[in-house]
Specification:
Elements lengths: L2 E6 L4 E9 L3 E7 L5 E7 L4 E7 L3 E8 L2 E8 L13 E5 L3 E3 L4 H10 L6 E10 L4 E19 L2 E12 L5 E7 L2 E5 L2 E6 L7
Parallel strand pairs: 9-10
Antiparallel strand pairs: 1-2, 1-15, 2-3, 3-4, 4-5, 5-6, 6-7, 7-8, 10-11, 11-12, 12-13, 13-14, 14-15
């Protein structure tokens, strides 16, 4: 069960996380002092079956239903269930997954694509960011540029390097992934890892 700390380089905030495979998929839970609480559960294909993002003022809950993502956005702290809460809005989009401030979403997207080295795929995602948990649909092209092996005390650790292109802006970002842990990504750095990544 990987457990550790990511640092968000923009504001220096720490995101304490733990994640683990389960009987049907994988779950990731994290907290940041001033940022969103993240709870992501995916199935065996790494598709999001349950997502919860919570800031001081807003709550988003959603998941994949057939070809569409569905999610509810509601004011946090009302005490009512999201469907009954005043101000709740329901949304849907033809997309396969979510993106957010947490590295969890990068792990889920990369694993869901199941790319071989040199292969690439386009993916349509709903990006939920900021204290207001605002949503925007984006299309990205993910390419697994290479996989390298690094010697560790526990044996060889495969590290994958992905090139991620935003098809609207042409911007290309790089993501380094080992198992179910992001090592380095834009604005993200792994500061501490108490237990090794889950591989396979």
């Amino acid at each position: 069960m990987p457990r550790g700390t990511y640092v968000h380089l923009g504001d220096g905030a720490e995101e304490r996380f733990q994640c683990a495979p389960g009987p049907a998929g994988w779950r990731y839970v994290s907290d940041r002092p001033e940022g969103p609480h993240t709870d992501l559960t995916v199935d065996s294909r790494w598709c999001p079956v349950r997502v919860e993002l919570r800031t001081r003022d807003w709550l988003v809950r959603g998941g994949l239903t057939g070809p569409e993502l569905l999610w509810l956005r509601s004011p946090a702290g009302s005490g009512a269930a999201p469907l009954d809460s005043p101000g709740t809005t329901e949304h849907s989009a033809r997309a396969t997954g979510f993106l957010g401030d947490s590295p969890a979403f990068l792990v889920a997207v990369a694993r869901s694509l199941r790319l071989e080295p040199g292969a690439q795929a386009e993916v349509r995602l709903v990006q939920v960011t900021g204290p207001q948990l605002a949503a925007l649909t984006v299309t990205q092209r993910w390419r697994l540029a290479e996989t390298t092996r690094h010697d560790t005390d526990l044996g060889p650790l495969p590290v994958e390097r992905y090139e991620v292109a935003d098809l609207a802006t042409g911007e290309i970002l790089t993501v380094h992934l080992a198992g179910d842990v992001i090592l380095v990504a834009p604005g993200i750095e792994l500061a501490d890892l108490e237990t090794p990544p889950t591989l396979g």
